Amino acid sequence: MSLAKIPKPEEASKVSLRPPARGWMETPAEFKPGTWCYSAAPKNLKALGLPNPRRWQPSDADWKLPENWQEIILQGMKERLERNRSFRLFMDICVRCGACADKCHFFIGSGDPKNMPVLRAELLRSVYRRYFTWSGRLLGRLAGARDLTVDVLKEWFYYFYQCTECRRCSVFCPYGIDQAEITMMGRELLNLVGCNINWVIEPVANCFRTGNHLGLQPHGIKDSLDFFAEDIADKTGIKIEVPLNRKGAEILFVTPSGDYFADPGTFTTMGYLMLFHEIGLDYTWSTYASEGGNFGLFTSHEMIKRLNAKIYAEAKRLGVKWILGGECGHMWRVIHQYMDTMNGPADFLEEPVSPLTGTRFENAKSTKMVHIAEFTADLIRHGKLNLDPTRNDHLRITFHDSCNPSRAMGLFEEPRYIIRKVCNHFYEMPEETIREETFCCGGGAGLGTDENMEMRLRGGLPRAMAVKHVKEKHGVNRLACMCAIDRATLPPLMEYWVPGVEVTGVHELVGNALVMKGEKEREVGLRGEPLTGKEGDKNV
Amino acid sequence: MSLGISFAALILLILIALGGVAGIEAYSLFGIIIPYAAFIAFLTGVTYRTVVWARSPVPFRIPTTCGQQKSLPWIKCSFLESPPNTAGVIGRMALEVLFFRSLFRNSKLEQKEGKPIYGGAKWLWLAGLAFHWAFLIIVFRHLRFFFEPVPGCVNLVATLDGLFETGVPTFFLTDALFLISVTYLFLRRLAIPSLRYISLPADYFPLLLILAIGLSGFLMRHVYKVDLYKVKELALGWVRFQPQIPEGIGWIFYLHLLLVSVLLAYFPISKLVHMGGVFLSPTRNLPNDNRMRRHVNPWNYPVKVHPYEEYEDEFRDKMKAAGIPVEKE
């Protein structure tokens, strides 16, 4: 990671929120280094059969668009307006009251007026008015309409890949206008002419072929999981089996691949393995459905469906009864709001019932997929786990609500219940920065790539400052979250704005606290850090 | 520039009304033809817009959840912010439409020592609520011009509205609220730099127009008094489809009427259609019960997927070598 061009935190935190003198329609997007993502490599577009594969970069003057690109975009817009009430309505009813303006983390961190959700939407709305409304056709600029030019397309690219689809603005909008919906449509349109980013399209291409974003092949996945099992054996003295592609298991477990690839997500995966072993769960991992996340969400609705199809297909092939899903953010937007509609009905599965507690997960009776936090909270509630929260006493925890489970699902209490049961020191960040008002990590929706680092750090400023607040007030040293993208993007964010705070998944904390039958005395946490009261022993 | 154009458009309208009535005395045009045309434009326009929205499919159930989901029985679900069923949705929509729930959440970003802080900001909510309610009550009070005898509920509202009985004729509370809140909304748009930056002529014009309607109505009632019996005679003529122009209604009435007509005609082609749209917003009017009840997408179509068989064909040898079970040996 090169931080050379990134301003120091003291400078970056000085953000001017005053708009420039020049009107926004006269101000083309400027592709400053550190604030945009590289284009998708042609091989990835080809692998997926997506249009216009070619070598280009957003900083080039010539984007090598197809000759009839305007026609393609306008036709694409027409189809999407006819197919989605949300899109048509959100193009029509905004009154520009400005309630959303200062709610976007990218606006707060950059001060760029086009990061105000209302203006980001106007980028698309102005074109909608010009080609799809009478007033726009007749009155043009007077009605807030403008022609679709190459500059406008570039502006779309810059700002629709500067929105993390976090839906925070939608919470405050009096009409529920959801910028995530508009960004998704904007990105679909850009995809029609081959304007997309590699950090999204490569994972999509990988996931299509290998079953996961990282492109891990089946034996690689097995190696990783076996490695975690060995690590667990070292720390607990307990040997754990890792069931993989096992037919006839009761439950299929699906989680984002980031969590069996890189720290600190790997520690969360170790937590899962320990938990499942301890309760004797009849379950299996899958190498084919080895991705809970779905970067299709950041590409197009069609791509969501193409990638998501694997989960039900694999559940059917393996003959499981229901599906359990790991900690992830946008994965749960897809599972909760899209999966059943796109690839259901899952009538070959059964209504999920916890084999340990007998709890029927009625809230998942149609989709048949349960969130791990719901599952674990239920276990704890029924006293099925032997927990020793003092093993997390070296940690002072705060909890970051991830955007999608918050605003596209409403998962607030389950993780908090778990954290309170496995930790003794838990402190909430200020109210207006958590739960439904939570702030994005700055790198969601496929923007968590290093060439986009300045924008990520700026977008993450509101989250970081809230962490800083509890660090100063309560000595918080660990930021818990339930999202694999968070676990990848929050560590550099903390390093930049709030050094000294590490990032953890909730099930890493569960793994630390879980007292396993026959385990040896634990001296270190899952990441090898000495536990409180055990530091002294080491020095002897 | 946006403001200038909007202002110029309003002045032009006022001149047209004055010239048309006081100048060339085209009473029938301003008293009958334009109001009818505007009313028809309003009805057909709003119906058309609503039908287009209502007929567009809702492929996905995408509520924005602002509270705890319904999951485990011992976790309290947020019935109104994350409604688990239709009753909850009705409650959520009622809060939204009647009390502007989401706008009530509004906060104001400030910067303090390089840190963002989020202060309370209820003025937009308050002014918005006052404006919309006052507007509704004023429109409702106007029904007395269209009915003979005047329905009891209209009289009741008028009586309550004029409770303080100050001035002759009675000064209505809602008139004051209306003028104050519209003025606030207008000044706010001018005073806040980011808001001025995003404002289009289509934002200033309706505010100015509505303000002018309110002022002309106020003047007509309290300053340049017009004969309300004659106004009612005209209004009843419209309703009975036997419109006639009574003599001697003052020019200010025709100005008021023209501005209202313009508002009606402008309504369906402007952002003012949010009135109907708010009811249809898929992030608000759908329950958060996605995993309980399947939502059907009417245009769901088959897509190209990568089936397991193809996956195994590519990786079979590696899977076997790693001891991972396969379908075909």
Globally, the shape of chain A reads globular
Overall number of structural domains of chain B? 1
The class by helix and strand makeup of chain B works out as mainly alpha
Please list the strands of the largest sheet of chain B in the order they lie side by side.
Answer: 1-2
**Taking Cα atoms only, what radius of gyration of chain B do you get, to the nearest Å?**
28 Å
Q: Work out the strand percent of chain B.
A: under 5%
Instruction: Give helix and strand order of chain B, one letter per element, not per position.
Output: HHHHEEHHHHHHHHH
Can you describe what's shown?
The complex is a heterodimer of chains A (540) and B (329). Chain A has 23 helices and 7 strands. In chain A, 45% of the residues lie in helices and 5% in strands. With 540 residues, chain A is mainly α. In chain A, helix 21 links the parallel strand 6 (478-481) and strand 7 (502-505). In chain A, the strands form 2 sheets. Chain A has a 4-stranded parallel sheet with strand order 2-1-3-4. A 3-stranded parallel sheet of chain A has the order 5-6-7. Chain B is mainly alpha-helical and 329 residues long. Chain B has a single domain (2-321), classed as Fumarate Reductase Cytochrome B subunit (Up-down Bundle), CATH 1.20.950. Chain B has 13 helices and 2 strands; from the N terminus they run H-H-H-H-E-E-H-H-H-H-H-H-H-H-H. In chain B, a hairpin with a 2-residue loop joins strand 1 and strand 2 (115-120). Chain B is elongated and about 100 Å long. Chains A and B meet through helix 3, helix 4, helix 6, helix 9 and helix 11 of A and helix 2, strand 1, strand 2, helix 8 and helix 9 of B.
Topology, element by element:
The complex is a heterodimer of chains A (540) and B (329).
Chain A lengths: L8 H4 L29 H7 L20 H15 L1 H8 L12 H6 L6 H16 L1 H6 L10 H11 L7 H5 L6 H14 L5 H13 L7 H19 L14 E4 L10 H14 L4 E2 L16 H18 L3 E4 L4 H14 L25 E3 H10 L15 E4 L2 H5 L5 H10 L30 H7 L1 H14 L3 E4 L2 H14 L4 E4 H8 L21 H5 L1
Parallel strand pairs in A: 1-2, 1-3, 3-4, 5-6, 6-7
Helix pairs in contact in A: 2-11, 3-4, 3-10, 6-10, 8-10, 12-13, 13-22, 14-15, 16-18, 18-22
Chain B lengths: L1 H22 L3 H29 L30 H14 L1 H4 L2 E6 L2 E6 L2 H19 L10 H10 L11 H19 L1 H6 L2 H22 L5 H12 L11 H16 L7 H4 L30 H14 L8
Antiparallel strand pairs in B: 1-2
